[in-house]
């Protein structure tokens, strides 16, 4: 029996519950603006983002229901609308600042600087956001509905459980909010007071006889622990396996055979080190001793990340090929719905999507607008028309890949930069094939990569939102309209925030620095990498051998019967990300084993609302909320300086040493994991499936 026939959403299709209302849209837009601005800051500063769907859902429950009397479906629309801001901001910041770092023109200014304007950023952000949502309309049924059991969409599922727990109240809400409270306290101790180390690590020396420059590390955050518990041991195990290959096999191997000067030269080529005679850069290069302070991260950025990008691109392509039958059937269903209007009224409310005509007309409209708008790079109409076509083609591909990736590991770990790298590489190769080489084409290639990055990021968030909607019984069409609104509104503020943060200080201007982005204040690591790849390919200066190593690693995994995309994502991401996720998955494995020993046979609904799952949901929500709050607070320089004063990291390190400080953090994380285990093995009361 198919999942479509057996699954029962929280709100039944025949129920008439308030959903798409003015207050839900306005509140969603407000949260989209706030979280979008916070994401811009965080991504420029550290090259990472925090998922906003669950924090917004928690806020919607605690504020919306109390002060605005919102229903569960209105709360879902609030988080759906608001989540667009965070995802679009991530795509924008990871790529579009790259305009500042393209090849210099005859005046010594970046060839793309003129396109780093508010209007260009606004247009690309809106177009990319709309594209990500458009392409998910025909994919919803195949990925969200038909694969409900095989694609967990951890944040979407967690968000749905948060919304349901808020409705049910009692023990359900209590367990979820207990996790949220524990995670929030833990995160405050970690991110504000720095009692807990954020990323303890053990690094062997470059001269180690057995395993040189190997690094074992973990971002011991509550949200990673919760995500690992939700996705389970199998997926988290494959993920961490990719990380083990990169950080405990490839990097020690490269450390043995590649001299430091060669690594430094490669980093200079990638723009991550100014020159061989200048100290600093990735890994903290010393031109005097010709060594790196952290040889592991230097090798990762110089070689392994390119290998990982090649693996992600190949894994994504393999995944797409394997899912073509499902995608074709989904598109056939969508086309059939256009022709057959006789039974439109018979379609259940929870299965009503926007018409497939919207996807076709919207895609054609985006291509034509990109060809006509003067804000976008291109020498003539046909140049821009090709850009538009490439955006739609790559968009259809990577939106599918992005949706599947976040279905496995969540939006916070979506390697959109890897997909963007693949897009830029593909675009540049097409340009070379038609004879478009030279500096003038670099901004055009970056536009394609930027829009795909935004579309892939928004598609990942959209998938999580649609999963949440599927669980709670929302109307897909209302969610899709809310996503369009959220994309447009948040893009207006995202572009403004980027330019606000790019404003140089008086000291910078005195030193001849015209952009704060790219300085030590806002390093924009992802955008610099994209620009470097763009220049490298169009000037025939890219190391294809590393990319192809990744491609064949993915093929090898697939031939061994392992899902290559999950493994490739693990190889691309830092081990510090996948290791704590794996720990969460391992705890879930132990809990499941204990439940089987007790002879417990839980239904799907009982598993979703089990104490362990609810507590893990709270961990994800609490950690994410705390991360966003800290990001918002640190935007203000005075507050940021104040937070530094209350940090106890220096004092603790002085008392117990740096090693002791790291061990203390691990003990805190182990304690949180033990609490998750104890709550997970508690017997849950039988659920009232009919609510």
TrEMBL record:
Pfam families: OPT (PF03169). The chain crosses the membrane at residues 20-44, 50-68, 88-104, 116-137, 354-373, 385-406, 418-438, 444-461, 481-501, 513-533, 545-565, 571-591, 612-635, 655-677. Its main location: membrane. GO terms for molecular function: oligopeptide transmembrane transporter activity. The keyword Membrane applies. Keywords: Membrane, Transmembrane, Transmembrane helix, Transport. GO terms for cellular component: membrane. The keyword NAD does not apply. It is found in: Membrane. It is a multi-pass membrane protein. NCBIfam families: OPT family oligopeptide transporter, OPT_sfam. This is Oligopeptide transporter, OPT family.
């Amino acid at each position: 029996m198919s999942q479509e026939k057996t699954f029962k959403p929280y709100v039944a299709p025949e129920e008439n519950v308030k959903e798409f209302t003015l207050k839900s849209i306005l509140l969603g837009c407000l949260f989209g603006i706030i979280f979008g601005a916070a994401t811009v800051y965080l991504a420029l500063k550290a090259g990472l983002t925090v998922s906003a769907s669950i924090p917004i859902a928690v806020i919607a429950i605690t504020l919306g229901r109390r002060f605005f009397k919102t229903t569960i479906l209105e709360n879902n629309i609030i988080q759906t609308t608001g989540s667009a801001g965070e995802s679009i901001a991530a795509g924008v910041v990871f790529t579009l600042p790259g305009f500042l770092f393209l090849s210099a023109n005859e005046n010594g200014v970046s060839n793309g600087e003129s396109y780093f304007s508010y209007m260009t950023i606004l247009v690309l952000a809106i177009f990319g956001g709309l594209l990500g949502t458009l392409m998910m309309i025909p994919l919803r049924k195949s990925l969200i509905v038909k694969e409900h059991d095989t694609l967990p969409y951890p944040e979407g599922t967690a968000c749905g459980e948060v919304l349901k727990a808020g409705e049910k109240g009692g023990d359900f809400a209590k367990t979820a909010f207990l996790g949220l409270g524990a995670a929030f306290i833990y995160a405050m101790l970690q991110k504000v007071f720095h009692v807990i180390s954020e990323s303890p690590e053990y690094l062997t020396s470059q001269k180690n006889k057995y395993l040189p420059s190997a690094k074992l590390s973990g971002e011991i955050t509550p949200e990673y622990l919760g995500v690992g518990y939700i996705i389970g041991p199998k997926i988290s195990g494959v993920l961490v396996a990719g990380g083990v290959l990169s950080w405990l096999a490839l990097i020690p191997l490269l450390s043995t055979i590649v001299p430091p000067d060669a690594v430094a030269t490669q980093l200079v080529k990638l723009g991550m080190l100014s020159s061989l005679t200048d100290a600093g850069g990735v890994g903290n290069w010393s031109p005097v001793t010709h060594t790196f302070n952290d040889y592991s991260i230097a090798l990762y950025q110089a070689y392994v990340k390119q290998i990982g990008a090649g693996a992600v691109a190949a894994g994504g392509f393999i995944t797409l090929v394997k899912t073509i039958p499902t995608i074709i059937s989904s598109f056939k269903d969508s086309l059939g719905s256009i022709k057959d209007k006789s039974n439109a009224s018979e379609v259940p409310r929870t299965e009503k999507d926007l018409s497939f005509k919207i996807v076709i007309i919207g895609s054609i409209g985006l291509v034509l607008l990109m060809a006509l708008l003067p804000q976008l790079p291109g020498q003539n109409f046909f140049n821009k028309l090709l850009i538009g076509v490439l955006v739609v083609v790559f968009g259809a591909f990577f939106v599918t890949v992005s949706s599947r990736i976040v279905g496995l590991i969540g939006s916070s770990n979506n390697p959109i930069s890897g997909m963007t790298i693949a897009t830029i590489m593909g675009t540049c190769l097409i340009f070379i094939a038609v004879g478009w080489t030279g500096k003038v084409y670099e901004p055009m290639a970056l536009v394609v990569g930027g829009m795909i990055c935004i579309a892939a990021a928004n598609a990942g968030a959209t998938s999580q939102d649609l999963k949440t909607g599927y669980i709670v019984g929302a109307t897909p069409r209302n969610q899709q309209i809310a996503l369009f609104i959220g994309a447009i509104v948040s893009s207006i503020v995202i572009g403004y925030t980027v330019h606000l943060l790019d404003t140089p200080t008086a000291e910078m201007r005195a030193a001849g620095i015209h952009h704060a982005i790219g300085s030590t204040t806002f390093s924009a690591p992802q955008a610099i990498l994209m620009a470097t790849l763009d220049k490298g390919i169009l000037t025939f200066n890219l190391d294809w051998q590393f990319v192809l190593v990744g491609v064949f690693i993915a093929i090898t995994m697939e031939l061994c019967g392992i899902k290559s995309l999950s493994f490739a994502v693990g190889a691309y991401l830092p081990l510090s990300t996948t290791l704590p996720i794996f720990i969460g998955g391992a705890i879930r494995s132990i809990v499941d084993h204990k439940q089987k020993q007790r002879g417990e046979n839980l239904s799907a609904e009982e598993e979703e609302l089990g104490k362990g799952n609810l507590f893990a949901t709270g961990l994800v929500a609490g950690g994410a909320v705390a991360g966003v709050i800290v990001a918002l607070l640190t935007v203000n320089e005075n507050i940021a300086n104040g937070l530094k004063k209350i940090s106890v990291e220096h004092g603790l390190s002085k008392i117990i040493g740096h090693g002791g400080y790291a061990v203390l953090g691990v003990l805190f994380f182990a304690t949180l994991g033990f609490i998750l285990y104890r709550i997970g093995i508690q017997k849950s009361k039988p659920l009232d499936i009919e609510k």
